[in-house]
Design brief:
Structural class: mainly alpha
Radius of gyration: 26 Å
Number of strands: 0
Number of domains: 1
CATH topology: MetI-like fold
Largest sheet: none
């Protein structure tokens, strides 16, 4: 005969399991808080060592600048409003080139997936263009397009778009065949497959590609601003190096680091939202 379950024992087991789960979650939160604290301390130590080295002469303050001198330059440019203009232009160019990159990347990857013959013809060229150092194209783009924002946008798009196409096309080819067969069995064509299966099923892949491309577009914008701009953070870097204002150069680099981190976190938040919707 089967023994009857003891209600008290079941309740005790549930309480024990709940307590263990709560302890595990607490340990995860404690670990995360500890990591954040260590990161902050490490940053403060590095900044402090940099400042002390510049003040004591261990580092050449003219060449390496210092946190204090960078902060002073930041406040001076903030006061006259010029810094916000440069940041806004670089950020706007980055977002515009990112949008163009993703639209071209998704559309081209879908087109290559739809036509196997076309993909066989174009794939070697996409690989070749993706491997080409994009900085080599910048002088040519200036001659073709002139010294203007179009050159910067095209330079930024060229840095990211070919890798985006290859990544998405490879992901599309790995789509679950059973889902594709189901759509075909129900009478659907390639248009229905793309709209109902391919794009919705590749959302995680697309968002993952966005996380990479947002940084690449920023790199492309800076390359373009080095050669074809009279404003923007890239312009500040090249101008500061030419007139030996290293405080301006280092400040611009730090701002670029903050912008790149912010853009990555923004796309990362978008990825989490898509993850919640799928659940």
């Amino acid at each position: 005969m089967k023994k009857k379950a003891n209600p008290k024992q079941s309740v005790k087991q549930l309480q024990t399991s709940s307590a263990a789960q709560a302890a595990y979650v607490k340990s995860l939160k404690t670990r995360e808080q500890r990591i954040i604290l260590i990161r902050i301390i490490l940053l403060l130590v590095l900044v402090g060592a940099w400042e002390i080295g510049a003040r004591t002469g261990a580092l050449n303050a003219f060449v390496f600048s210092s946190p204090w001198r960078m902060t002073k330059t930041f406040w001076d440019m903030t006061a006259d409003g010029s810094l916000f203009l440069h940041i806004g232009i670089t950020l706007g160019e980055t977002l515009l080139s990112f949008l163009i990159t993703m639209l071209i990347g998704i559309a081209t990857a879908v087109l290559l997936w739809c036509s196997r013959s076309l993909s066989d013809v174009l794939e070697p060229y996409v690989v070749m263009l993706n491997s080409l150092p994009k900085s080599a194209l910048a002088p040519v783009l200036i001659v073709w397009l002139g010294n203007n924002i179009r050159t910067i946008i095209v330079a930024a798009v060229s840095v990211a778009v070919f890798g985006c196409i290859m990544t998405l096309y490879t992901g599309f080819r790995e789509m679950d065949e059973d889902k594709l067969k189901l759509i075909r069995t129900l009478g659907g064509g390639k248009r229905e497959i793309v709209a109902k299966v391919l794009i919705p099923g590749s959302i995680p892949l697309i968002v993952s590609s966005m996380k990479v491309n947002i940084g690449l577009c920023l790199v492309g914008v800076i390359i373009g601003e080095f050669l074809a701009a009279n404003c923007g953070l890239g312009y500040l870097i090249i101008y500061g190096s030419q007139v030996f204002k290293l405080d301006l150069v280092m400040m611009s680099i730090v701002i670029l680091c903050v912008i790149s981190a912010g853009l990555y976190l923004g796309v990362n938040a978008l990825e989490r939202e898509f993850g919640k919707e799928q659940k």
